[in-house]
Design brief:
- By secondary structure, this protein is an alpha/beta fold.
- It has helices at residues 29-32, 64-81, 91-107, 125-131, 139-149, 159-176, 233-249, and strands spanning 5-6, 16-21, 42-47, 84-89, 113-117, 193-199, 218-223.
- Strands 1-3-2-4-5-6-7 form a 7-stranded mixed beta sheet, with helices on both faces.
- The longest helix is centred in the N-terminal third of the chain and has 18 residues, at 64-81.
- The two termini are 25 Å apart.
- GO terms for molecular function: fatty acyl-[ACP] hydrolase activity.
């Protein structure tokens, strides 16, 4: 499990686990640090994808299905033993959604709360368009796009680092394009509450469709900042306090 999951503060007596899913090109560094902001009732797991950090020598995932299968295979025991919630930002929102969908369909399990950030609803036309968008093979173009999102303030000078960053982002973007979901083919998939977050200065997202995916409540919050608003300390504080409140108010 240590290969797949970063858990900086183990809390075996926690009431609930929060599973965090990273954005395209991301690792576990930022979201795993959230564990210091939660109390002992919540244990934070951060998903580490192949091709980065301690999994640098592994080949990148080819599709969303392979990621879902690894997560559910490795963490099925943990999903069954105590309540869990998901948080996903950008690509991570789609990974968390796809994993939750698989758990519900195959095992009858679902998170007590699904927290998603900066992502089109997977049943929206905007998401479909993004899945067919062109992914540049030019590293400079790709890194420029990431910089525009706010993920990089200054591009690294080291050419090898730039190349690795572009490669990771490109591979993750291609994984997103393999997301398979057709709302018309199924009933409302979830009963848990869904909370959606975004940055006020980010690209506009077609987010309203998230409320069509659950019979539970859906809430929407806009926080100051760009695509990576969640890395600002004030927003980090809001997010972790809000997530804690939602989890502690859930019927665990």
């Amino acid at each position: 499990m240590e290969k797949l999951v970063a858990c900086l503060h183990k809390r075996p007596d926690a009431l609930c686990r929060l599973i965090c899913f990273p954005w395209a090109g991301g690792g576990t560094l930022q979201l795993s640090q959230w564990s210091r902001l939660f109390n002992d009732s919540i244990e934070v797991y951060c998903i580490r994808l192949p091709g980065r950090e301690t999994r640098l020598e592994e080949p990148f995932a080819k599709d969303m299905t392979s990621i879902i299968n690894e997560i559910t295979t490795v963490l099925l025991k943990e999903f069954k033993e105590k309540p869990f919630a998901f948080f996903g930002h950008s690509l991570g929102a789609y990974m968390s959604f796809a994993t939750a969908l698989h758990l519900r369909k195959k095992y009858g399990l679902e998170p007590v709360h699904l927290f998603v950030s900066s992502a089109h609803a997977p049943n929206s036309a905007a998401c479909l368009a993004l899945k067919t968008a062109y992914i540049s093979d030019d590293d400079s173009d790709l890194l420029g796009s990431i910089r525009t999102l706010g993920g990089i303030t200054v591009l690294p000078n080291n050419e090898d680092v730039r190349r690795e960053l572009a490669l990771t982002f490109r591979q993750d973007a291609r994984v997103f394009q393999t997301l398979s979901f057709n709302k018309a083919e199924m009933n409302i998939p979830f009963s848990c509450d869904i909370t959606y977050f975004c940055g006020s200065d980010d690209t506009a997202y077609d987010a309203q469709g998230w409320q069509e995916l659950t019979t539970g409540d859906t809430s929407f919050y806009e926080l100051p900042g760009d695509h990576f608003y969640l890395l600002q300390s004030s927003n980090e504080s809001f997010l972790t306090k809000h997530i804690t409140r939602c989890i502690e108010n859930a019927d665990l």
